[in-house]
Amino acid sequence: MSHNWTEVIVGGAVLACAVAFGVYASQSTGLSQNSAGYQLGASFRSLEGVGVGTDVRLAGVKIGAVTDVTLNPDTYRADTTFSVADGILVPDDSAIVISSEGLLGGNFVEVMPGGSPFFFEPGDEIEDTQGAVSLISLLVKFVAGDGRE
C-alpha cells in the first residue's frame, strides 16, 4: 500500500508542476492578459514576420499587440489593427515601424513617438508607416552590387 501512496504523491507533485508551468507560460507570453486598451490602425507595404498577437512596443516596452491583419484589395497593402494599453497616449505625429529583434529574432511593431501635444484617439489610423525590410533582398543587392562606383 505504501508504494501506491508514493505514486499518488509523486503524480500530484508532477501535476502541480505542470499547472504552475502552464500558468507561468501564459503570463509570460501575454495570453492571460485582458485586451483592455484602445485600437489603432496602420497600413503597411510589407508586413513580413508580423501576425495577430505580435508585440507592439514603445521604447522597447510592450504596450499592446496586433489584433487583426487583412489585405486591402484596392491598395494591395496590409491593413493592421493593434491594441494599445490604456494610459499610454501616442502622439498624433508618431510613426510605426516593423522592427527586427536581430538576425535570428522575430519581428515586432515599434511605435516611434513624435513630439505633438495631441494624441491619437481610439480607432485612428497612423499614416506614417515603414514596412518590414527583407534580409534576403538586402543580401541579394549586396552580392549583386548595384553597378555604381
Task: Give a short synopsis of this structure.
The protein has helices at residues 2-28, 135-144; strands at residues 38-44, 55-58, 61-72, 77-84, 95-100, 107-112, 125-126, 129-130. It has 149 residues and is of the alpha/beta class.
Secondary structure blueprint with pairings:
Blueprint: H1 2-28, E1 38-44, E2 55-58, E3 61-72, E4 77-84, E5 95-100, E6 107-112, E7 125-126, E8 129-130, H2 135-144
Parallel strand pairs: 1-7, 2-6, 5-8
Antiparallel strand pairs: 1-4, 2-3, 3-4, 5-6
Give an overview of the whole structure.
The protein is of the alpha/beta class. The chain folds into two domains: 1-32; 38-141, no CATH class. Helix content is 25%, strand content 32%. It has two helices and eight strands, in the order αββββββββα. The protein has helices at residues 2-28, 135-144; strands spanning 38-44, 55-58, 61-72, 77-84, 95-100, 107-112, 125-126, 129-130. An eight-stranded mixed beta sheet has the order 7-1-4-3-2-6-5-8, with no helix packed on it.
